[in-house]
Amino acid sequence: MTQLPEPRDVAPRLATGAFILNSGLSKLSADEATAHGVHGMACTAYPFLRNIEAERFTRLLAWSEIAIGGALLNPFVPTRLAGLALTGFAGGLVGLYLRLPGMRESGSLRPTQDGIPLAKDAWMLGIGLGFLSAGRRRGNAGAARRRCRCRRRG
Hints:
mainly alpha, 6 helices, 73% helix, 0% strand, globular, transmembrane, transmembrane helix, DoxX family membrane protein, membrane
């Protein structure tokens, strides 16, 4: 039986899921110039992506975003699984911010004016990491309390 998300996870799942899904849907209809721009920026940060054609890369990115956004919006996808996908995706975006020239002030993590649109993706990484740890805390804390009560009684 699939467990529905905890009430505390609903709002961040909806916010990030809708945001990422919209981004993916927008990229599906990207024209050639947009595809080359997206691909060029990604290749600057991750040179191995040069081996993929720009239009194909943008389509793959779009479908990846649609899948991740859909997973976050689907209440039957476990939060930890959706968090794993979100953490991987957001980690790539934060890596983009850290690797692209001109996105950060010299010698600092503080964004330049041009870097603000990428720096803001750090919130998604934080949410993803929170989702990854959510299930573990809940289960272990309950078991620890039960063990502690048993020892006191015995």
